[in-house]
Amino acid sequence: MSNRPVSVIGFDADDTLWQNEQYYKLTESHFRGLLSEFAEGEHVSERLLEAEKRNLAHYGFGIKGFTLSMIETALEITEGRAPSSVISEILAIGRDLLSHPVECLPHARDALEALSGKYFLVLITKGDLFDQERKLAQSGLGDYFDAVEIVSDKTATTYRRIFGKHGEGPERAMMIGNSLKSDIVPAIAAGAWGVFVPHELTWVLEHVDKPEEAPRFREIPDLGHVPDLVANLQH
């Protein structure tokens, strides 16, 4: 393995290995319906996004923060007059998110199986600890990973720490994910390869420009292309 350009490969989880954002979209649609007598749906979504932005620093990423942002938005839009039945329903749809089924994306299992044992595989995901552990267990993909890192955020510092801990540093590491902002740009900034696998429902707050001029940036249409990309990688 010492002659390979990559010895450690990191994988994002949500919307890279399994579906995630589609469940948030369904929940948001339900939330808009709950407040339909108070505001137009588009306005509700705009206010919810503003609340999520404000609350990231307080609650972090994940379902619990999203649920609290929905409650805050409902109180703002109704000027504190949101019926208790609406608050109760928001809590209920938040709990539903915590129990939604795990649907693996195409080629996820095959890609991991092809790489397992040949490279050190690390799941690197952010969000609620219990929820991410639940999804990994239900996905049936856990056995393919040599390590799991559930982090509060993904920065260049995060990737330097993880790839230094589990390998020989970011220079011989690769990060694969659907978020340019969280998975690709900071991994490349740390010195690693960044492989972008687009997902049509990537959260709007994860959108940034592609680092197309970066020598270590790659883009593939799905995880089925990962084994060949890694095998043909040059220093």
Task: Write a compact overview of the structure shown.
With 235 residues, this protein is α/β, with parallel strands linked by helices. The chain has helices spanning 21-34, 41-59, 63-77, 84-97, 108-115, 129-139, 156-166, 180-190, 226-231, and strands spanning 8-11, 120-126, 147-151, 173-177, 193-196, 217-219. It has nine helices and six strands.
Shape: elongated
Helix content: 40-55%
Taking pLDDT < 50 over at least 5 consecutive residues as the criterion, the unreliable ranges are none
Oligomeric category: single chain
- Summed over residues and divided by their number, the pLDDT gives a mean of 93
The Cα radius of gyration reads 19 Å
Q: What composes the largest sheet?
A: 6 strands, parallel
Structure, described:
The protein has 235 residues and is α/β, with parallel strands linked by helices. It has helices spanning 21-34, 41-59, 63-77, 84-97, 108-115, 129-139, 156-166, 180-190, 226-231; strands spanning 8-11, 120-126, 147-151, 173-177, 193-196, 217-219. Strand 2 (120-126), helix 6 and strand 3 form a beta-alpha-beta unit. Helix 1 (21-34) runs antiparallel to helix 4. The protein is elongated, with a radius of gyration of 19 Å.
